[in-house]
Amino acid sequence: MRLFVAVVPPEEVLDDLDEHLEPRRAAGEEVRWTDRHQWHVTLAFLGDVPERRLDDLAEVLARSAAKRSPLVLRLSGAGAFPSPYAARVLWAGVEQVRGDLGAVAHGIRSSASSVGAAPDGARFHPHLTLGRFGRPTEATRWIRALEGLEGPAWVAGGATLIESHLGEGRGRRPRYEVVADLPFGR
């Protein structure tokens, strides 16, 4: 099972983002925009996890999430990975209005590792992927076009364990399936 843990913004935040992106989507063909149902803030990418570990994994992740308080987040600004000058990914930033998303991600990652579902080693950088480039692209114009993004604040009351089914979505994109909701408990 190919799994990740994420915070999924509520519909009204996705509506606002969709509205902000609509006039920009037609501005160039080099961005392959992600579908709305794929928008999330990844806390930990776990990769391939044997199905036999799923129950233990869901249990430790739920315990980790239950130790956290709800967060207040906002989508704000934009950037690109690995750099604006050789971009492969265009993203919206995540402002932490209240709470520490990094601490939540660290707890989730540690918990997953404790049951043999070690997350990738990438440094945590809170973002929501907006689109991908087919080849490294100088993306400063896209970042400038999106830098005015400031979505509504929302209360993130938990995280979600999600399975990614590669190539099963629209245009051979991944299809996501919720495996477990992980509410924050304090």
UniProtKB/TrEMBL annotation:
Pfam families: LigT_PEase. Its EC number is 3.1.4.58. InterPro entries: Cyclic_Pdiesterase (IPR009097), Phosphoesterase_HXTX (IPR014051), RNA_CPDase (IPR004175). Belongs to the 2H phosphoesterase superfamily. ThpR family. A motif (HXTX 2) lies at residues 127-130. This is RNA 2',3'-cyclic phosphodiesterase. A motif (HXTX 1) lies at residues 40-43.
